[in-house]
TrEMBL record:
Organism, as annotated: Hondaea fermentalgiana
Record keywords: Membrane, Transmembrane, Transmembrane helix, Transport
Membrane topology: Multi-pass membrane protein
GO CC annotation terms, alphabetical: plasma membrane
SUPFAM superfamilies: Aquaporin-like
UniProt protein name: Aquaporin
């Protein structure tokens, strides 16, 4: 199935191009957000001894939860507009890569987009290399939501006034990537791949592939 993803932005993008129903999209996004929270709780549980019960200077250095569980944060030299554009571009790169590989007609005809994991992985890697020092590299609203919520549960508020960029930017990128894919890149892409069946002769040997 092509609608599986750990990012609400990618799931929304796939929904916009007709690869996922609205009901399934909502269920996936809810699961992604819950998974991000659960994962952040696990990280906190595994690293709690780094700060809990330690000397005050150690706890102030490490933080509690330790290192804010990797919560995103905008570089102090940037403003919200800069961060929004960066998050938009990083997510757009990811979404358009997913659409151009997983949903490419040649890959669909073969039934297995073999090059998709390599291309998608490289897109994610490139986004992280560029964005980590600038925005912390969100490009996934669930990845932003989980650590931020768990930090709030611990009494550590990381929700800055610029945090909207990690949600608005990726979701707007979903619409942009879906629109580009449907209107310019693959406007006549078939909605579904025809299934095939093997016709056999009386001896049981395959003769030809036929569409069904």
């Amino acid at each position: 199935m092509t609608d599986r993803s750990n990012s609400p932005a990618v799931t929304l993008c796939l929904t916009l191009v007709g690869e996922c129903s609205l009901l399934r999209c909502g269920a996936y996004i809810a699961a992604q957000l819950l998974g991000a929270v659960f994962g952040s709780l696990l990280v906190w549980a595994c690293t709690s001894n780094m700060s809990y019960g330690r000397q005050e200077e150690v706890e102030s250095l490490v933080g509690n939860p330790p290192f804010d569980l990797g919560a995103n944060g905008l570089n102090a030299t940037l403003n919200a507009g800069n961060g929004f554009v960066l998050e938009f571009l990083g997510t757009f790169l990811l979404c358009i890569t997913v659409l151009s590989t997983v949903l490419h007609p040649d890959n669909l005809a073969q039934g297995k987009p073999a090059n998709a994991p390599i291309a998608i992985g490289f897109a994610v890697f490139l986004s992280h290399v560029v964005l980590i020092p600038l925005t912390g590299c969100g490009i996934n609203p669930a990845r932003t939501f989980g650590p931020a919520l768990v930090n709030s549960m611990a009494g550590n508020n990381v929700w800055a006034s610029t945090y909207w960029i990690y949600f608005v930017g990726p979701f707007m990128a979903s619409f942009a990537a879906a629109g580009l894919h449907k209107t310019l890149l693959h406007p006549n892409e078939p909605a579904a791949v025809p299934k095939t069946a093997v016709q056999q002769d009386t001896s049981g040997r395959p003769l030809m592939m036929a569409k069904v």
